[in-house]
């Protein structure tokens, strides 16, 4: 019988580096298994081999957490705006399939399974606390029955909803992590990162941090503010960070969803593996020990985290067998000028070109300034009508002209 794996808290309490996985919805959308817009994870049922393969790639790259592909897998999201999944598949089946796949792959290495919940249409539509918690509890029932190792409440724009999620997940008795998709200015109600972290800790979160919406450097600033808030409150909570794999210096309060390139033209903003080396080192130096990625993070990005922190972890991931440290494999290249790039100094100092003549360096984000309670965010079961779309197109034109 194989020895029991160390728990997430045992690993973090001992100072071990825990490496999360990358962005499933974006990676699988590019591969043709997820539809942009709803971003829901029915691929776990419809195309389990695609989800399984991505888990395996992240495991091979160095991840030791297999997060269930249950982002936006709440019942209300699966029936929102004409989505067919709740009726034709069911939220329970999606969550069960995601747990089974994650457990299968986690068993192939020293990885833990984390069941994840995220923000809900019910909260944005101003449903009550009890109604929102009921949504989370349905997913928790599956995670409990599948005996996941720990739980993550991720991708929350409002700390209040994240608190509700943490309170529900704590009913399991398992460790709980909570991450907000916020920047240094705080959540969409203006609650500061430091106060957000304290609220999540008081709600019962064992691990707090940020994920998505912003690039690594912005997320590091936010986590630093969270750390300061926790220290001021004399709270001992582990830190976690899983940023975008896109550069977002021009993003405002609401992050990359305001960028005109979202979601189909973000590729020019993608982090290089060397950007990720820098991110991983700075996260480690800040005291963060749970380090991963979100949208845009592919397995090679996760490998870069594992390679940068190999001295601290004491080993390299399996995927490094085909990757020389800092381009060292290029010493075998045919062309001499490419062989000359087989060194850390070259890649560390490189400023990559975009390849696009006269391209703008930054964008003008679509900052509509709407959040919970605004009429535009009221959710519905019916598909968006043509008339509703026309109203949005008109509003967008008006915003562009301001």
From TrEMBL:
Pathway: Amino-acid biosynthesis; L-methionine biosynthesis via de novo pathway; L-methionine from L-homocysteine (BhmT route): step 1/1. Its cofactor is Zn(2+). InterPro entries: BHMT, BHMT-like, HCY_dom, HCY_dom_sf. SUPFAM superfamilies: Homocysteine S-methyltransferase. Residues 6-309 form the Hcy-binding domain. One of its GO terms (cellular component) is cytosol. Binds 1 zinc ion per subunit. GO terms for molecular function: betaine-homocysteine S-methyltransferase activity; zinc ion binding. Keywords: Metal-binding, Methyltransferase, Transferase, Zinc. Zn(2+) binds at residues 212, 294-295. The keyword Chaperone does not apply. One of its GO terms (biological process) is L-methionine salvage. The keyword Cytoplasm does not apply. Involved in the regulation of homocysteine metabolism. Homotetramer. This is Betaine-homocysteine methyltransferase. The lineage of its organism: Eukaryota, Metazoa, Chordata, Craniata, Vertebrata. The gene is BHMT2.
